[in-house]
Amino acid sequence: MLAMDRAELLAFLGREFPQVAADFDIAAVTPDLLTMRLLTAERHLRPGGTVSGPTMFALADVAIYLAILSRIGPVALAVTTNCSIDFMRKPEAGRDLLAEARLLKLGRQLAVGDVLIRSEGAGGVVARASLTYAIPPRG
C-alpha cells in the first residue's frame, strides 16, 4: 500500500528540495517499484557528451528516497547511510535516464534498495546502485 502517490511525492520534492526537483519526474509508482526520469540537460554532461557519474548517483539516490517515502510517508530527514554504484556502460547521448528503484527491505530504522538506470529507449543497464537509508524515529 502506498503512503504517498506520484503527485504527493513530486509536491514533497518540490517543497523540500527545490534545488533538484526540476531535474526529475516520476514515471510510475507502485508498492513494488518507483520509476524516475532524469530530464537530462547540458548541465548533467561531462566532457565527451555523457551523463556524469555524480548525476547518475543523484538519480539513484532521489529514486530510492522517493520509493521509501512512497511507503512510509513524508519523512524529510531520512538519509543515505551507504551507496555502492556500478557504472556499466555509457548512457546514450540525447536521451533521458530512467531509474527503476526497488525496496529490498523496509524496516523501522533502515531501508535497503536497488536501482537500475537505463537510457530511455535502450535495453542495456547503464548503472546499478545499492543504497541503504536511515529512517529517523517517529514522534
Could you characterize what this model shows?
- GO terms for molecular function: acyl-CoA hydrolase activity.
- Residues 48-121 form the Thioesterase domain.
- The structure is a single chain.
- The protein is α+β, with helices and mostly antiparallel strands.
- It has a single domain (4-132), classed as Thiol Ester Dehydrase, Chain A, CATH 3.10.129.10.
- The chain contains three helices and eight strands, in the order ααββββαββββ.
- Strand 3 (45-46) and strand 4 form a beta hairpin.
- The protein starts with 5 loop residues before the first helix and ends in a 5-residue tail after the last strand.
Question: What can be said about this structure in brief?
Answer:
With 139 residues, the protein is an alpha+beta fold.
Residue stretches low in confidence (pLDDT < 50, at least 5 long) are none
Helix content: 25-40%
Instruction: Give me the CATH superfamily.
Output: Hotdog Thioesterase
Q: What would you say the CATH architecture is?
A: Roll
Give the mean pLDDT.
Answer: 94
Taken together, the total number of domains comes to 1
The amount of beta strand, in percent, is 35-45%
Q: What is the fold-level CATH name, i.e. the topology?
A: Thiol Ester Dehydrase, Chain A
State the distance separating the first and last CA atoms.
Answer: 22 Å
The structural class is alpha+beta
What is the count of β-strands? 8
The CATH C-level class name: Alpha Beta
Q: How does the major sheet shape up? A: 6 strands, antiparallel
| Helical run tally | 3
- What coarse outline follows from CA principal-axis ratios? globular
The helix/strand series, from N terminus to C terminus, equals HHEEEEHEEEE
Radius of gyration (CA) equals 14 Å
User: Can you list the strand order of the major beta sheet?
Assistant: 1-2-6-7-8-5
